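Fig. S4 source data, part A: sequence.
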Amino acid sequence: MEVVLYIAALVAAIGFLVLCISLGATLFSLKGTLNNLSKTLAGIEGQMEGVTRETTTLLSKTNSLAEDISQKSEKLNTVVDAVKGIGDSVNGLNESVQRITTSISKEVGKNEEKIAQVVQWSNVAMGIADKWRQRKTINDQDVAVVDTVNNTSKEGCK
């Protein structure tokens, strides 16, 4: 039975040796993987520094662009206010013209009969003036010219 105990101890020793060899191989493989991972992380760290620098530069440019847009927006607000003022002035002018037009229309409506009478009287006055001119022309032609020196008379125009 002692032999069995030695065989068992030998089998256990061989099993422990196999376990140690496989554990060592696994650890060596893990060491290579960790070295690769370390190199990859170093590369990522370098890239992250570059990305951080570019992000900082981009953020700076974005801030200056936002400030420029803000200044231009303020200037544009001034222009918009001026255009609004012009629009308000034009609206006020339109309202004034409409009031004047309405007022004139009302006054013409109120004085329509008087205007008609003025037109009739002006037509009558112009007719009288025309007849007066015609009569004066006729009277001027009918005037007799008398020569007192020679005691003769002449008819004709002046």
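Fig. S4 source data, part B ends here. The mean pLDDT is 85.
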